[in-house]
Amino acid sequence: MFAMKVGPALAAGCTMLVKPAEQTPLSALYYAHLAKLAGLPDGVLNVVTGYGRTVGAAITSHMDIDKVSFTGSTEVGRLVMQAAALSNLKHVSLELGGKSPFIVFDDADIDKIASLALQGTFINKGEVCVAGSCVFVQQGIYDKFLIKLVDKNQYERVLKFMEIGKKEGATLLTGGGKLSNRKGYYIEPTIFTDVSVRI
């Protein structure tokens, strides 16, 4: 997120003020430290930590800030837009809650697109703000797409791994079973705790 937002702005000759989420400030502070070591002049990249209701609000309403890019909830996005409009009518880019749609039409190459749909959903373990986790498939290829997307062999493999986890002493906190009320090969959201890691 930091690189995605800061890199292009710096390349365009802009100065940046970054306010990371209050729960996760260390990586942004470290990136700023690395930028200084790389020779970026003082004042070009600035990181300010704190809570959104105080620091974030000050940023969005500041008269000398020309643009705000915000990633977060729709509720806070509305507040960002209001503050931008009431201050200097600064430009705003918002990336808010919701699902990024992955749309598949009848003329798609099913083999290729099924693989891309899986990658789009689970890249970086699904921890990506633009994960294509909402898939819309045109009716003409829907059944063929499901067969390609959800493989019975993979489904059985995952169930087998869950059984191995239980046998090896991991505690099944929730889930772990088949979802039989859906068409296709689905498994309940599953969480294991007390897992022994073998390296």
From TrEMBL:
PANTHER family: ALDEHYDE DEHYDROGENASE-RELATED (PTHR11699). This is Aldehyde dehydrogenase domain-containing protein. It comes from the Eukaryota. Belongs to the aldehyde dehydrogenase family. SUPFAM superfamilies: ALDH-like. Residues 1-151 form the Aldehyde dehydrogenase domain. The active site is at E95. Keywords: Oxidoreductase. Gene3D superfamilies: Aldehyde Dehydrogenase, Chain A, domain 1 (3.40.605.10), Aldehyde Dehydrogenase, Chain A, domain 2 (3.40.309.10). Pfam families: Aldedh.
